[in-house]
Amino acid sequence: MATFESFAERFVQCYWETVKSQRYSMPPNEPVEESLNEILSGVTFETEVFGEHVVLMRSGEWAWWKFTFVGRRDNWTLARASARSLDESVPHNLLIPPYERLFRPFLIHVTQCAQRRAPA
Fold it and tell me: 24-48 burial by CB neighbour count: b if 16+ within 10 A, else e?
């Protein structure tokens, strides 16, 4: 049986594969020079399950993203997505304007990729 932790692992992998592919280019649209393994070596993530299924992903000292999912087994739907902002007390909500236009299609693709991929 697939677990949320297994889905989260696939989500993180698909997230960075998609970033590397530049299929969903985002400003500043610079090429990703690092290999996927180099990118993933600098990324950590953890999951929380307290009535909500959360993936908290970090890269380096500064960047973090928080994704909240609803569902079960391998039928997960992204409910909320946020990222660190310069004002640490108010993170960016990636699913509302102005970020939604860029992030919603990207995150839907990543979620679907993670759901299609067989658990490791």
Answer: eeeeeeeeeeeeeeebbeebebebe
